[in-house]
Design a protein that fits this description.
421 residues; alpha+beta; elongated; binds adenosine-5'-triphosphate; binds magnesium ion
Amino acid sequence: MALKTTIYGWVANVKVLKKIAFVEAITNNDLTYTVIVVKKEQNPELWETAREIELGSAIKASGTYPEKSISKRGREFHADDIVVLNSPIDVMPLDPTGKTPAQIDTNLNYRYLALRFPEQRAIFSLRAKVVNACREFFIKNGFLEVHTPKICGAGAEGGATVFTLDYFGRTAFLAQSPQLYKQMLMAGVSRVYEIGPYFRAEKFSTARHLNESWGVDAEIAFIEDAEDVMNVLEKLILYVFDYLQENASKELETLGVSLKKPRSPFKRLSYSEAIEVASSQGSRVKYGEDLDTESEFAIGKAMEEEGYDAYFIYEYPWEIKPFYIMRKGNELSFAFDLDYRGLELASGGQREHRYHELIKNIKDKGLNPESFAFYLEAFKYGMPPHGGFGLGLDRLVMKIVNKKNIREVVLFPRDRQRLVP
Ligand code: ATP
Ligand code: MG
């Protein structure tokens, strides 16, 4: 005898075939429907209730799971009672059956309703697993998880891309990245990571930028060179792919994604080689400029032809990288980016750990060392050589699930237009 149980969920569809009512409901977190079956001849009253349930209602049903489930839509459940806990008081803004796909804006306005659909749920379930994978990787490799302040007294790289706020009469900033804090920590801890949000007041309207986004940041002390940092980032990315393959098959299947672990070792392209590749593909980017969307895309295509989804671009001109990056000679730097199929996923590099050189770098960027006094203080007491990276979580997930717009993988995105919900 099957055990009697109670299930809870939302009604996605109701079908009545002759004398059987089928109530399709999203009843749990595992991306499947439950098909609640009510037979008229067994329970005419309940059959009447079932066929009249409004789509979108929250319900509770008691009954049993039959040994054999013949429904293709989901696991069958034979109910002997159904209670409507609450039914919609307004027209559902999203088709409860999920048959008519909604515009992205509607999905964003009603994300909580969109999450009733397996496809949407799969995106966020997978996103959570990417975070799990990263955390597991860092723990296994001896990193300390840290949480640095998001309300700061100075901007990470200065400039106009910080949000300012009133902090009891003083001007404060929202963190653009954990950069300065994770570096300061290198004076006392040799490996840290942080998974958290950061804020940028950039007036972008692109499919890959948000004004609030999440980053996976790491910083490593006692490195020999930037290659040590690239290696950790490469291992992290491969770990995430392995982890998803093992732990997210359901999500990937629901999303129709066949995950391809990137070929490793990842290709390493110097910045000047990257410029050549971009130019040979018709991009107009010139040596000394930051890679724009067009050139990133062009490089991505060329790399794909060589069989590389993921590749590093290293040895950027110091001129176009932030002050904390260590110089390589006069012109170049120990900065790198990790790109995946034509999109920048991460930036990193070896940092300048020598106090006097760092001050010189700050001045060379036209910034005032006094504004960074709290940061510079940490460099006075045996700061070891170190380096790290900032990996865009939203972008990584967006690429894994093959979405064109970063907003699709962020629950409640913040861009210039969106401040609610
Ligand atoms: P881009 O050049 O693409 O604007 P960036 O070089 O300004 O990015 P970094 O400061 O290097 O960004 O930040 C580290 C990573 O964080 C980036 O590689 C990217 O994956 C992610 N990231 C940065 N800015 C944003 C943003 N506005 N929205 C979403 N992700 C971002
Ligand atoms: Mg970058």
